[in-house]
Prior knowledge:
This protein has one helix at residues 2-11; strands at 13-25, 32-34, 39-45, 47-52, 55-60, 64-67, 71-75, 80-89, 106-118, 123-132, 137-142, 147-153, 156-160, 163-167, 172-175, 181-184, 191-200, 210-211, 224-232. It is mainly beta. The strands form 5 sheets. A 5-stranded antiparallel sheet has the order 6-3-8-1-9. It has a 5-stranded antiparallel sheet with strand order 15-12-17-10-19, with no helix packed on it. It has a 4-stranded antiparallel sheet with strand order 2-7-4-5, with no helix packed on it. It is globular, with a radius of gyration of 18 Å. The protein starts with a helix and ends in a 5-residue tail after the last strand. Residues 1-7 have low confidence and may be disordered.
Amino acid sequence: MAAATETEWKTDMTQRTLLLFEDTLPAGAKPVYLPAGARAVYVRSGSVDVIGDDGSRFLWEGAALVAGKEATLAAGDEDTVLWRWELADGDADERDFRFRSAPEADSTLKLRAAFDFDDRYTWLMRCDTVRFPAGGTALTHLHQGPGIRVVLDGEITIETEGTSATHLPGDAWAEQGVLPVRAPTTERRPTTFVRCFLLPKQNKGVSSIRIVEPEDRAKPNTQKYRVLAEQVLASGT
């Protein structure tokens, strides 16, 4: 009976792919049309109007949107750079997620990562920023789900599973969520990264971080979080 239960649990896991693109929309470019799909959009620089069946939203530099419906991206009167995360099937072709029929715009894949999702949960997509003071460190921790981060300013080192990698502005990396991570930052200046990750919907509006080491749990976090946008994904997304 125990073996059957374990087998049943394993069949509830689905591999999905998260892709991070850097999109460039020149000032005054023709609108870009996005198909339906679970995505987050962060404005790295410039501004953009996001137009859908249920209205429009103006996003300025540092703002973000999480959505799952078809959308039109209308560039403003200045060059705009977007960071865009797309959640796709495990064997997705990245070319299907670049801007189509938009020769004035450009899409460059920064990173793709495959993650296993437990289909017994309903999932939430969140886009937020994490800011450290100079020399701040994220103590050894894990999260309730996976995602892709990208450095906005500063420098951060990710230590996990015996490996260490340092990331500079514009660098992206993936985290599984369930694997412990320690993350010191540079002492020369503050560090900020932008993150899109997937969490069980019970995390809506609350932090997903869990400190691993008992001796660290009473210590204050040096990092500050700002949730820019989040949305519970439709079943089957």
